[in-house]
Amino acid sequence: MKHRIVFATGNAGKMREIRLILGDLGCQILSMKEAGADPVIVEDGKTFGENAEIKARAVWECTKDIVLADDSGLVVDYIGGEPGVYSARYMGENTSYEIKNQNIIDRLKDAEGEERSARFVCNIAAVMPDGHVVHTESTMEGIIADKPAGSGGFGYDPILFIPEYGVTSAELTIEQKNRISHRGKALEAMKMELRRILEEESL
What is the DSSP letter of 94? Predict the structure, then answer.
C-alpha cells in the first residue's frame, strides 16, 4: 500500500523544502490543507518535541496518514534558553522580529565570546498510521551577533552568527542553509527513519 505523507503546515516555503528532501521516498506528500485537514491546534507543550507531536497528532486524527509536524525556535544560553518554545510568541505574537532581535541583543550586552552561544532547534514528530510516534531533532549552532545582518531568511536569522561561515544565518546562501539548517538536518534524519519503517513494512 502506498502511503501518503501529510505535513502539518500551511507554509508554502516549508512545503517546498519538505518535498525536496522527502521526495524520493515514493510517497505522495501533501500539506494538511491539501489533505483536507484543518484542526484547531493548541500548542501548549513545554518542549519542541511536545509541540511537534501535538500538531502532528491533531492532523493525524483527521487523516490517519503518516503525519509530520515540526516545532522550532531559538535557544539563547545566556538568558536561560529563551525564547525557546515561545520563539514565535516572544514579546507578543504581533511584535516585529526587528524588536525581538534587538531585545535579545540588548539583553546580551554584557555577554562575551562563548557566553553568547545560541542555536536554532528543530524537532520533527511523525505519527504513523497505527498511531505510534517517531521524533528526530537537530540544531544549528552559533552565537548571538552584536547587530542584525543579512536579508535572507526570516525571524531570528539576522542575529544568529555562524562562526564557521563567518556570516549570520540570514547571510547564508540557500544551498549552505539547506546543508546545515536545523530543519534540513532533522528532515534528513526523519527521512532515514521513515525509509527504514517503510522498508520493514514491505518485507
Answer: T
Sequence letter at residue 159: I
Selected catalytic residue, list 24, 71, 77, 106: 71
Task: Choose among 43, 55, 127, 56: nearest CA to 85.
Answer: 43
Annotated catalytic, 24?
A: no
Give the CATH number of the domain where residue 95 resides.
3.90.950.10
Least-confidence region, from 16-20, 187-191, 194-198: 16-20
How far apart CA 18 and CA 31 sit, in angstroms, is 10
CA distance 49 to 27: 24
Q: How far is CA 154 from CA 37, 85, 124, 149, 174, in A?
A: 27, 17, 20, 11, 13
pLDDT in tens, 80-135: 999 999 999 999 989 999 999 999 999 999 999 999 999 999 999 999 999 999 99
Q: How many domains does the chain have?
A: 1
Beta bridge partners, 82, equal 76
Q: Of 131, 167, 128, 126, whose CA–CA distance to 150 is shortest?
A: 167
The residue segments making up the domain with residue 148 are 4-202
The pLDDT of residue 11: 87
